[in-house]
């Protein structure tokens, strides 16, 4: 066989092989070259191919084809430390992009990437790539604080100054403001339109023009408003939307009642928080003669007022959801509707969509009806009042004596429904919620834990029952519909959870691709009174998929529900409004044309609603983090007890009883050199074997709290003693270590490793340390960068 022919055969054999690499013996077998002279020729040819870089050898001496970069499109997500991830498919793991390979991409950009390294399932290492080009810039404008240049600097640089962005993911950038258009005063919070993006030599600099001054940084509430605007959330309604809302009548007319069932004679109540103003759900419960329970869930009929082709509907769709922040609500629909005609205020008639259910003593819904109605609530109840009644508080019982029997029935039915959910395997993660109390100026003065009593939980049970009933009803009619789905966890995440649980001695029933909610519920139940409870709950939560909206019904894994939708909050969620619109539409018309229209429309509504929900959650988290950091800034130097809430390779996170979370950096843990044991989420000291794990009690001192970066730093004072873990390979390492210098070097490397994650170093400080010239030569000597257009 000629050498050229052998080369082609070798390459064809490697391409056709199921394995990524072959040993020389396996390759000889594939090519039928096992005779000694043939094998010698094979070895010589492979050696020549290696010199030509057509094949290569891996660490085990096996022959493989060189990796060919794969170019694909995706969305870049930037981490504040500079590296990022690219999402190609929401159903697949993201591609890691090292800091030096981002090609100046910014958060949200649509990029083309080369995948440089494929994922290795055996080492749990994800795929890695580099950004080749940026197809579309996501960030067209930024919100930030304006820093003014003086008159001489403006004349020399042709710049008004620069803006520091409020968005955490853009905080490392400076936006230099061209000397044209609006010139605000120093400290103004402004919106900047970006005209130039980062490029070689100017990696952390942008240029733009100010299009709007929002206010001044010292104005009350400006800190929250900055976050809201930075997230792209509208803070006011357009004039035409306000005008449309004012044209909606504030009272019900007789014409509005046509085709509605009149339930105004029933004993119906709303149960909400004391400060709630948009009351969109009301309930009633009674016992039937056959021993079953009657549950009526009545929801504000927002879609009757927010009609399909109206400007009100267009605005509600764009917003997707109301946003609930520390001291304010940014509503989805104007407050004239949300707090007025759409709110189920007491003792006045209101239009509703009703779901009435008959439920047997086992919690099974044996009959239901869904229809348009009119109600008049008997009372506006609060959670605290209902809880007081159920605790037999004599004064509250006397005040609401006519309603007391119904509340006890509600408690009975709630317990039946809750037991039913548990029996089918619904996963219950007890999550602590905190309310940040602020003064009139918006400054945080306290953080209160919210306790969920029976009053809160029974409303949750009744809303879940209605949501499931409505979803099942329309799914079985095979009509286009919108669902709230929570898919089964991905196999790789479940495998990690299995490995983690096994390391703690916990056996999980089921397999990674067939595990049921019931199996996971059993795990939580088994560890609820054990020290491992916190860590198991945390790891299990991380293994779950994110709930979203979809036109296809995949069920709700966490609730162990075969059918689920959102029907009960149309004042604050657009998908609920759409569910109401579909109920009304299908009650009048189920033609093929109608079904086809909604089949085409619902995918966009579901996708957009999911995105707007994530945007709102992000804004709410940022505001909470900022206010908590502001609250703790007044407590620097104080000591607190807490528990370890997360362990990473660069430090440990501590959660305080008030839900504030701060970090102890690895480089501040100088008592030893610590190894990160990933499969147990633990840090273990090499010399002392001191171990830090999730759920461990600690005492800390607050050393730093920065509302701008939302970062809180702690110092470790004491830690609960727990069984030590062994450092993998520690005994062999100790045998190899030289008597002198080894530990010191290790400790130094630990310190340096921590410094790599030191959030206190700014990019400007690092640049100056390296002696690089400042950005933009026009003002280089003043170290106030800028650049002219062109």
Description:
The protein contains 20 helices and 34 strands. The protein is α+β, with helices and mostly antiparallel strands and 790 residues long. Strands 6-5-4-7-8 form a five-stranded antiparallel β-sheet, with no helix packed on it. A hairpin with a 5-residue loop joins β20 and β21 (365-376). α11 crosses α12, α13 runs antiparallel to α15 and α16 runs antiparallel to α17. It is globular and about 100 Å long. The chain starts with a helix and ends in a 20-residue tail after the last helix.
Content-based structural category: alpha+beta
Largest sheet: 5 strands, antiparallel
- Shape designation: globular
Helicity, as a percent range: 25-40%
- Give the N-terminus to C-terminus distance in angstroms: 63 Å
Strand order, biggest sheet?
Answer: 6-5-4-7-8
- Strand-residue fraction? 25-35%
Roughly what is the average pLDDT, rounded to an integer? 87
Gyration radius from CA atoms, angstroms:
31 Å
Lay out the secondary structure.
Elements: H1 3-16, E1 21-22, H2 24-30, H3 36-51, E2 56-57, E3 63-64, E4 70-78, E5 84-87, E6 95-97, E7 110-117, E8 128-136, E9 141-148, H4 151-157, E10 159-165, E11 174-178, E12 188-196, E13 205-216, H5 222-230, H6 239-246, E14 261-262, E15 269-272, E16 281-287, E17 293-300, H7 311-319, E18 323-325, E19 328-330, H8 335-341, E20 349-359, E21 365-376, E22 379-382, H9 383-390, H10 394-399, H11 404-424, E23 433-438, E24 444-450, H12 454-476, E25 483-485, H13 491-503, H14 517-527, H15 533-543, E26 548-550, H16 574-588, H17 592-633, E27 639-648, E28 651-655, E29 661-665, E30 674-677, E31 682-685, E32 691-693, E33 697-706, E34 711-719, H18 730-736, H19 742-755, H20 763-770
Parallel strand pairs: 11-13, 14-21, 15-22
Antiparallel strand pairs: 1-3, 2-3, 4-5, 4-7, 5-6, 7-8, 9-10, 9-12, 10-11, 12-13, 16-17, 17-20, 18-19, 20-21, 23-24, 25-26, 27-28, 27-33, 28-29, 30-31, 31-32, 33-34
Helix pairs in contact: 1-3, 11-12, 13-15, 14-15, 16-17
